[in-house]
Every structure is written in structure tokens, then in C-alpha cells.
Amino acid sequence: MQNEKWKMQHMKRVHILGVPIDPVTMDEAIDQVSRMLAGSLQHHVMTPNSEMLVEANRNPAFAVVLQKSTLNLPDSAGLLWAARKQGTHIPERVSGVDFVERLCAELHADVPVFFLGGRNDAGKKAAEKLATSNQQLHIAGTFEGTPREENVVEIVSRVNASAAKLLLVAYGSPQQDLWIATYLSLMPAVRVAIGVGGTFDFLSGRITRAPRWMQHAGLEWLWRLCKEPRRWKRILRATVVFPYLVLRAKRTAR
Fold it and tell me: Which residues contact 125 (CB under 8 A, 6 or more apart)?
């Protein structure tokens, strides 16, 4: 029955540049992941944004991972714009940062969470801040590590020893999701693994998020550019290359 539910959900997916996106609201996303955590199967949840779809367009291995994931949350305003351009609909943006914060606020103590990745102790600091504001949150462990092969044995050993059911992986895209797709089966207690990108940086306070009005206006990229000019190439892919690919695909479809 559970497999049939996920199958029905996937039938409703919106495809943008060949990548399936789940047109869910924040409430629906929280509900679905909560049910995954209570189940017996393992699930890979991803948070695609415009830049990730550009990467998938040139990286076949990453595109395959996006096709096989259980849930792809629409993590950027660009995806909502692209859906409208092709005549489909995504109801709202489900920001990865907001999603993780909300999910951790609603988890019960019987769902241990492991924070993997994040530079300069960002994962540990994010876990501490979330635990302070959510007394019921069960932090199973934190570890920075790297997605390199030589770290796999230690990471898997730490996660398995923690008995974590939820694994948050912050190694950046596409590395984090390629890592999850490769090694999730080695961590049998984990029910849900989520690639969370820079979420730990925001939750720890290492990086300040854009004001709400900029987030709602789809201008968070401008804030990031001002705060982190070194990201200009990544922002260019999201704000220029992605719209170009979407419009080109629309013309080709006609």
C-alpha cells in the first residue's frame, strides 16, 4: 500500500527540463516526510532549485538521482516561474531551510536526527540551536566529514551507531545527493535522508538569510550575491542560464 501511495504521488509530478518536481505545499511536504519516517522503507528527499536543474541538464548521473528520489521539493522561485511558463502549476516554494526548521519543530523524540556536513562546525551549531528551541528534538549526532570516498566508512559507522532515522546531509549539490544515492542502503536505520545544501549555515547563523520580502519577491539571489560575491557563477546559472534553458525548451516543444 505504501509503495502505491508514492507511485500515485509521482504521477502528479511537474516536469521541468526533464526533472520531476513535486507540486506540494509546506504542510503537505511535512506530512509526507512524517509518514516516510514512520514507515519501513528508505527514502531520498531532495530540494531542487534552478541551479540544480542546470546541473542536471549537463550531468546525467545527477539527473538519474533526481528521477529516482522519493520527493523533490520546489526550493526556488525560479521553479514556480518555469512551471507557469510551461502551463503547469506549483502552488508554493518549499524552501529547504524553512522545511528543515519546521520538520525539526514537529518531530517527536522517537525520531533521532543526524546532522552530517556543514563547514566550520555549522552542522553542530545548527543542531544546538534547533535543540534549544525544540526541547523534544532528539539529536542523534553531528559530524562534518567530507563526501570523499575515504570518509565513507567512518561516516556510515557514526550514523549507524547513532540509530538515526533522519539524516540531513549538507555537502552541497550535487555531491550530497550523489553521496546519499550511493550509500543510503548502508545505513539501514535511516528512513529519510535529505540533501540540505547550505541549510546548516543559515540555521547556525553563520550566514544571514535575505529579508522575507526579498524571499517572497524571488530576489534572494540578489541578497546572496551581495553577501557572497564569490557565488556569482552559481547565481548566473540560476538567474540567466536556467531561464534560457526553460524558454528554449518551450520553443522546442512548440
Answer: 200, 204, 205, 206
